[in-house]
Amino acid sequence: MSPLLSVRGVHKTYTSAKRSTVVALEDVDLDVGEGEIVALIGPSGCGKSTLLRMMAGLDTDFEGDLDWSVPPRPGKDIGFVFQEPALLPWRTVRRNVALGLEAQRDTSEQGREQVANLLDLVGLTDFADSFPKELSGGMRQRTAIARALAYNPRILLMDEPFGALDAITRDRLHDDLLRIWETTHKTIVLVTHSVEEATYLADRVAVMSARPGRIKAIHTVPLDRDRTPETRQLPEFAKFSGMLRQELV
Ligand SMILES: Nc1ncnc2c1ncn2[C@@H]1O[C@H](COP(=O)(O)OP(=O)(O)OP(=O)(O)O)[C@@H](O)[C@H]1O
Asked: What are the tens digits of pLDDT across the range 49-90?
């Protein structure tokens, strides 16, 4: 698989206002293949969000290289989904999803169609004219995912996107994301604390060590790409997620 993004020798140090320094990332190398779902797991504070923010271009103050097969266009090629959906409360679901297109002054019929297709993809067509406060937590996060996909980014970066949801909603959103992937084949980098989430969703899982964050191991998930709720019951699923859990301690 050809890498869409190669992270090479990345090193990141934060300096606080009091001049103390924190080495957040050290010698990080990681390839993200085109169309691949890569999960990043690791103990709290190991630098997962820092790495994702670098990939998003939100943090450019680091040593090392991010080599893209094609350099991403700012605000166009990278979609970001955070733990909190951060929707605009005065906009309807449809207009929240259309936000990125509006920012690019895309008011075309094609743009409107794209929004309608995305609402359909995330199962929110019937709520297109609802406001965020009228939605459940899962629906809000679906809206955020549709918004991130609206301008058709080449890569979707997700930072604990399901972390604030209850277990049943989370499982549903996992299946939604897999369905979205089947339709779009988007490259996805997913930061998660959950070894089960990483196992269910990812093609490969990068395990990071505690601070300073390094990539400790990269594992290919030994499951068919075609995952269904039954996959969670397979012995390979339990074995692989158990192995990841062991690696985290
Ligand atoms: N803006 C900042 N200024 C100073 N230190 C920071 C800053 N952002 C993060 N850090 C430090 O860098 C390290 C990595 O933080 P980061 O948020 O990337 O970790 P994480 O793995 O995403 O954590 P968590 O799983 O708890 O969300 C932590 O020690 C954190 O305190």
From this structure: 999 999 999 899 999 999 999 888 877 899 999 888 889 999
**Ligand 1 center to 249 CA (angstroms):** 19
Q: What percent of the chain has pLDDT over 70?
A: 97
Residues within a 6 A CB radius of ligand 1: 14, 16, 22, 24, 42, 44-50, 211
Q: How far apart, in whole angstroms, are the C-alpha atoms of residue 179 and residue 124?
A: 14
Asked if pLDDT for residue 249 goes beyond 90, the answer is no
Is residue 70 within 8 A of residue 3, CB to CB? The reply is: no
Is the pTM for the entire model greater than 0.90?
A: yes
Q: What is the DSSP letter of 213?
A: B
Ligand 1 pocket mutation pick from 18, 48, 53, 207 by most atoms within 8 angstroms of CB: 48
Residues 6+ apart with CB under 8 A from 21: 13, 14, 15
Nearest CA to ligand 1 atom 4: 14
Kindly report whether the peptide bond that precedes residue 43 is cis, defined as omega within 30 degrees of 0: no
